[in-house]
User: What shape does this take?
Amino acid sequence: MSNLHIPKIFATIIMMMMFAVLVMSSSVSISNYRLQPNKVAGRSGLIFIASSSGAIGNSLISSMPRQVGCYHYANSIWESTPCLTTELSAGLPAPTEGGVIGVHGGGGDGREADVHLQFSQFSGESDSQYGPNDFSIQLNTNYFAGNNGHTDWVQFVEQNWPNRWGIFGGWAGLCIWQNDVTTGDGSDHTCVNTNQEGLNNGYYATVTGWVDITYGNLDTQFCDNANNCWSVVQSDHKGLIGRWTDSSGQILGMGNASQANFNSPTSLSTQVQFWKSAVYAGFTYTDNTTGETNNLNWGTTSSNCQGSLCQETTPSTN
Assistant: This one.
């Protein structure tokens, strides 16, 4: 091999290395781009958290996901994650109407609601059917005349089921339940796995639900007191959009009309908020409906309705 050929060989090797780097960088760009719709194509959502003083404040997580699917908030972006399989979700105990604190908006253009709860005292809890530390945090809509010609109803629910498989471990997840009240069919639901929650003094969490009128979807989000967040986006199959008039929420039994029984002393503050698209004359209400319950006693409710937002805060003790 002559010395004249060495520079050409080196040049060829350098060109091949540059090409490899270019291909690798292109692959990384494509891989990262696939995450971008979850990060930049979303809406801004309010998450209500408790400050160190116990007051409820706002923390903005931007770019909420809008595409149908399941998500986990990590590394400052929403990342797509698998939804619970149809086989596993079919075995979940369906929540029934159990929201005991509510905000009524009037009209039918509700856009967003959330239930925020915080314990200042906690001494233990056990579900009447499922066992210790089993419960649900429910955000419920009103009944409405659905697209299917039936009476329908939507629930945004975080369910905590640590006793699901006994010694083999439990389950927790966030679900959108689109229920057919007329037929009693609750099979239309989508869930994402979340962390199992352990209630304690100072524990707080928020479940949010909203309608995406641009995409025709329902969206929900759950955030716990460790600032872990998950989201589910599901098509509005039953037609809640344009028919959402009020919302209610509370921590209750896990499902199938069970009761969350709290040991004494327990002290809990629950806030429900409801937004509409425009200024409205909303009002708050407290009622006791069938379905999941808890054994806490309600205190005096404080309410505030201003502009397009109406909120209600109720203490509960035993």
